[in-house]
Write a structure and sequence with these properties.
Four Helix Bundle (Hemerythrin (Met), subunit A)
């Protein structure tokens, strides 16, 4: 009963964690000097950051009302939406300022946040392509995790660093809270999955000895 009552609160908390930074950015005074395409690109980046938070929560089974199967399916679909949001973010910035994007993509930009964002972008694209071709490539679950987990760490670390270093339309406190939540959720799912695997290994060894 207690878990049933707390389930809506978890979903509300997730909605606030993602929605508040978006709403705060929508009230930024800096938008008055930005064109529509630049604004679209910027908000696509904010949405992408919110989707990064949802990913570990889904794969870790922390969102109530979702079975493990539905959580994995949602994880894949949101991964695709994340890649699309990044494409919109990069494409919009490319159209509005090609020289800046060329510097960023070639790791020659003087801005400190650029290399983190670009590195996270490539990691997102690699994961998306491998996920789409996983069956054709014959990647087993163990191999997929060996590849996916380090890339996920790069995505989280790069995205958080990229976001925190940018002084743009996002409000400082809500942005920091979102980034902290992303880090906490990622660390927790990494620990939980590792513990679960160790327990499964110990059980297997115990059965084998018997």
């Amino acid at each position: 009963m207690k878990g049933w009552r707390s389930a809506p609160l978890i979903w509300v908390a997730l909605a606030l964690a993602i929605g508040v930074p978006i709403a705060a950015a929508a009230t930024s005074e800096q938008l008055a000097w930005r064109g529509p395409l630049y604004i679209l690109a910027g908000f696509a980046g904010i949405v992408a950051l919110g989707l990064v938070l949802a990913q570990p929560l889904l794969i870790g089974g922390y969102l109530p009302g979702l079975s493990a199967y539905r959580g994995r399916r949602a994880h894949r679909w949101i991964g695709g939406a994340l890649a699309l949001a990044v494409v919109i973010h990069v494409a919009g910035l490319w159209i509005t300022s090609p020289p800046d994007m060329i510097d960023a993509l070639t790791y020659t930009s003087p801005t400190p946040f650029s290399p983190f964002g670009v590195t996270a972008m490539w990691a997102i694209f690699i994961v998306a392509v491998l996920a789409a071709l996983r069956r054709r490539l014959g990647l087993r679950l163990r191999t997929w995790r060996i590849v996916h987990i380090p890339l996920a760490i790069v995505i989280v670390a790069g995205s958080v660093a990229h976001c925190l270093l940018i002084e743009g339309t996002m409000e400082t406190i809500s942005k920091a809270v979102l980034c902290v939540l992303i880090l906490v959720a990622t660390v927790k799912v990494m620990i939980d999955l590792q513990v679960w695997r160790k327990r499964r290994t110990l059980r297997g060894e115990s059965v084998a000895r018997q």
